[in-house]
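Re: the request from the purification team.
They wanted to know what the chain is likely to look like in 3D before they choose a buffer screen. I agreed to run a prediction and write the result into the notebook, where they can find it.
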Amino acid sequence: MGTKPVRIDNRKREKARRRRQTAATRAAVFAAALVLVAVLVVAGIIRHHKKTQTVQNDTSAQTVSQTGNGQEEQNGTDSAQGQQISHTEAAGETLAGTQVQSVTAKGYAIQVVDGVTYIGGVMIANKSYSLPESYAPGDLLPEVKEAFAVMQKAAAAQGLNIYISSGYRSYSRQQTLYNNYVKSDGKALADTYSSRPGYSEHQTGLCFDLNTIDDSFGNTKESAWLEQHAQEYGFIIRFPKGKDAQTGYQYEPWHLRYLGIDMATKVYNSGLSLEEYLGITSEYAD
């Protein structure tokens, strides 16, 4: 068998090498193209994600802004309501669960419960504000009795004697008394010292008359002591001297009204009658 020439073998090997290089180059280019495509795809995905996130953020921001504005509006409403509540509270004590009908000249809330008027949380019965005939506690209220017992003991410690001569009066009892006074003194005069039925504080169970129930009581040591110390036990001299025009009644040093220590002290320190303190009148409509 004959031997192939070396030159021919070299040519074949060279061609084979070139084919391998070409294939490798093509493979490298293809791989690079795939990488480029992959990069472009990833970049597109990233841009889309960022755009979507931006839109979501903008939407969220708008939602938050709208919610914030709504919250601000709600806060504004709450603030206004709070101011109204604060104004009502500033007007004086009120009864929970009872609508405020109006306020007095001094800003105290006027509320009516079952026909009974409360002003600044204080039950009122005078010539302007009446009680229904059905209002009948039947006796002095327990807190009034308790406070009086403490005051009576304190007075006794000073060698003084105070006692209740007239306490609770029903509507019908006041009607009988008033009619008798009208018969003896006439209506105009009777109205200066006696209440018409339904307008008497005695019907509240929160007041009483002490000792002799006449003008001479104002000259006693007991009267002088009460003028200075009644408020310490929750009482006020309901119809003070020189306040006839405001209270609607003549001076009655024997007539005490229970308000509680805090309120009684405020009224006493003001130097005003209860009507003046609350900013109300005491005048019959007719």
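For the purification team: Strands lie at 102-103, 109-113, 116-119, 122-124, 164-166, 207-210, 235-239, 252-258.
Please add any questions underneath this entry.
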